[in-house]
Design brief:
mainly alpha, globular
């Protein structure tokens, strides 16, 4: 490797190596969403009904795409905490003085987090039959592609916070205030139909809403009637891509300001 590819890949691979050495992150990022899926899927089984004619869909099946996105979110959160710790330990200060542009540093962090998130998402994707979702090769590949885009989007949002905050405690507080509500309002936890006007506006303006819609449409490529009320696939992918670019640009801006400070 030469040029900017080497520092980008080095930072990305460093995230992967650190993850392998910290097995507790695997437990938090993968097993916790599975616990949520088991408990909530069973708890809402008797009372949940999907609007729009998706008769026979249990809450465990409905919540399954939400669990996929939750794995991506948790992986991004744990990786962003590592980014804050890197700044506290002085590692990123050493990287910032290197003769490379700030965007390559942010890109390396984002790619490392994305690789980890998608790898765990693929593991969970293998459990789709347990949720009642019938995957084909086409839908599995399409879902994986959407997970890559969605993971990069979530990572960009997390990096904006990680570069601006100076403590892991502050990151936890902001995460509970911003990132988790974004996930809850994405259609992952409950359908967007029938919401109050003000809540519906928040759902439509949520960047994760369109990533969730694309994820569901790819999972149910063979049964489009189950996702007929969601935004079209093309619009969802385009919106997620736009939010990903904007999030990455904002993270680069935050890193540049922090480096000058």
């Amino acid at each position: 490797m030469s040029g900017l590819a080497l520092p980008v890949w080095t930072l990305a691979w460093r995230e992967v190596i650190r993850f392998v050495r910290q097995r507790s992150r695997l437990t938090g990022a993968l097993l916790q969403p599975l616990v949520f899926w088991a408990l909530l899927g069973g708890g809402f089984r008797a009372s949940f009904r999907v609007p729009g004619g998706a008769e026979g869909m249990s809450y465990a099946e409905y919540f399954y795409p939400g669990v996929l996105s939750l794995v991506l979110l948790f992986t991004a959160i744990f990786s962003m905490i590592s980014a804050v710790e890197d700044r506290q330990s002085g590692f990123l200060q050493g990287v910032l003085v290197a003769p490379i542009p700030r965007w390559s540093i942010v890109l390396g962090q984002a790619l490392g987090c994305t690789i980890l998130a998608v790898a765990q998402g693929i593991v969970l994707l293998a459990l789709a039959p347990l949720a009642g979702v019938s995957l084909t090769a086409e839908s599995a590949l399409a879902t994986t592609a959407v997970m890559i885009l969605l993971a990069f989007c979530v990572t960009g949002l997390g990096l904006i916070l990680a570069w601006r905050l100076d403590s892991t405690q502050g990151f936890h507080a902001i995460m509970n205030l911003i990132l988790m509500p974004l996930w809850l309002l994405s259609g992952a936890f409950f359908p967007a139909e029938g919401l109050p006007f003000w809540l519906a506006i928040l759902v439509k303006g949520n960047p994760l809403t369109y990533g969730m819609a694309a994820l569901r449409r790819c999972l149910y490529m063979g049964r489009p009637e189950l996702v007929a009320t969601l935004p079209p696939l093309g619009l969802s992918i385009a919106a997620t891509a736009i939010f990903s670019v904007l999030g990455f640009a904002a993270a680069v801006h935050a890193a540049t300001r922090k480096g000058r400070g």
